[in-house]
Specification:
Elements lengths: L3 H11 L3 H14 L1 H14 L7 E5 L5 H9 L4 E6 L2 H13 L6 E5 L11 E7 L8 H11 E12 L30 H10 L4 E7 L2 H20 L3 H25 L7 E7 L1
Parallel strand pairs: 1-2, 1-4, 2-3, 4-5
Antiparallel strand pairs: 5-7, 6-7
Helix pairs in contact: 8-9
Length: about 270
């Protein structure tokens, strides 16, 4: 399935004014389990010295994590980069309206070429690396761009079905629910080895989207996206669908966040320079 057209449709609905945009971010924070895991890790980093003064959001998309980090790290300067010009322009307009343009900036960039030596205390990359073939080159750029002691935080699908490819592995020509991915997901050991190979001194990785998370994702994300992919009329149905599903999704997200999973369809990876 082509995921980007649906994301663009949702963006058009919620990007009409800053209030709707903030509401959209809050909904994403609640529904997207990856956002729960990212918040958990960013809270840990916010409690550790030295203070975070410079942040790179590498593959910023709608800008929800950039906006949240601007709130969580109020003294930090943040650069957010993405390869899609329309999203960069849109996010810069929102950030200006939100009064954050003095320390938050969105720029067009290709992560395979982007490098700013020894500049950032924290680099965040959420659901990006599965879209990039030249991943080792990007890891090299991240390493070079971090200050000594800086942290790289990655959320990406695992090879345990992170692109939902296992549901369709016997169907010719179907490569998974989200077919913009260049790989079906990372092996936990493989991504750690790649990060260490470019110089990272310490790497930690854990699974997200264990059994509770997988169920939550299907209820709160996969089914609604399939509905919207079938017909735009489901925009009318979705609020009623979520009234029923949302409480169950919240409970499942709490469970996924609270347990260490032996396997899962997502990975949370931390690497220190």
């Amino acid at each position: 399935m082509q995921y980007d057209p649906i994301k663009r449709s949702l963006g058009k609905v919620f990007n009409q004014n800053p209030v709707l945009r903030r509401l959209f971010y809050h909904l994403l924070d609640l529904l997207l389990l990856r956002a729960w895991h990212i918040r958990k890790e960013l809270r840990k980093r916010s409690r550790v010295t030295p203070e975070v003064k410079s942040i790179l959001d590498a593959g910023s998309g709608f800008g929800q994590y950039t906006y949240r980090m601007a709130r969580w790290f109020p003294k930090a300067e943040i650069k957010a980069v993405d390869i899609k010009p329309e999203q960069i322009e849109d996010c810069n307009q929102f950030i200006q309206k939100a009064g954050l343009s003095n320390r938050v900036k969105f720029e067009l960039a290709d992560l395979t070429q982007f490098q700013e030596n020894n500049r950032y205390d924290l680099i965040l990359s959420v659901d990006v690396m599965e879209h990039i073939e030249e991943d080792v080159q990007v890891f090299m750029n991240f390493y070079a761009s971090l200050k000594k002691g800086g942290l790289l935080l990655i959320s990406t699908p695992s090879d345990q079905g992170g692109s939902d490819s296992h549901d369709h592995e016997h169907e010719e020509g179907i490569h998974g629910f989200i077919d913009e991915h260049v790989r079906d997901g990372y092996n936990l050991g493989d991504i750690c080895r790649k990060l260490k190979s470019v110089g990272f001194s310490k790497v930690e990785a854990r699974y997200s989207y264990g059994t509770p998370g997988k169920i939550s994702w299907r209820l709160s994300m996969k089914i609604p996206i399939l509905m919207l992919g079938a017909s735009k009329i489901f925009f009318i149905v979705l609020p009623f669908y979520y009234l029923v599903v949302f409480p169950f999704a919240l409970i499942l997200n709490f469970l996924d966040l609270g347990f260490r999973h032996k396997s899962g369809t997502g990975l949370i990876v931390k690497a220190w320079k």
